[in-house]
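Q: Convert this sequence to structure tokens.
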Amino acid sequence: MFEEETTLSPEEVYQKTISMNGNSLKELQLSVFNKQGKEILNWMPEKEEIKPVPESAKPALSPQDTPSVEQLYLTGLHLEQYRHATYNPTDYYKEALKREPGNVQNNNALGLWYLRRGRFAIAETYLRTAVETQLQRNPKSL
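A:
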């Protein structure tokens, strides 16, 4: 339908109006190639389809019922990110540390939690534990 060779630059906008000649937008495909003929950009409109409604959010398991230390960390992180009103992320981090006291992720998470709240002495305890765990096998890693 249309082909043009031009030099593109971040400083200048390239704009072109092209007649569709009765073609549908659904059939449009845009490709941009570099000087060597390698395609560096390709765009096509998405097919019009009715997509299924995503599953609704499920409530978090209690910290005690959460099956793994990793899931405890991820749940706590999620609760922090979305500032959940009815769950406390520290409950999840602390449960993880009951199961695995040296866990780096959960010690870091709790250390940062307390650090952000100005509770420096408590934060330091968790952060130092995380560092100690990391240095157990590789003392030169930090």
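Strands lie at 30-33, 39-43.
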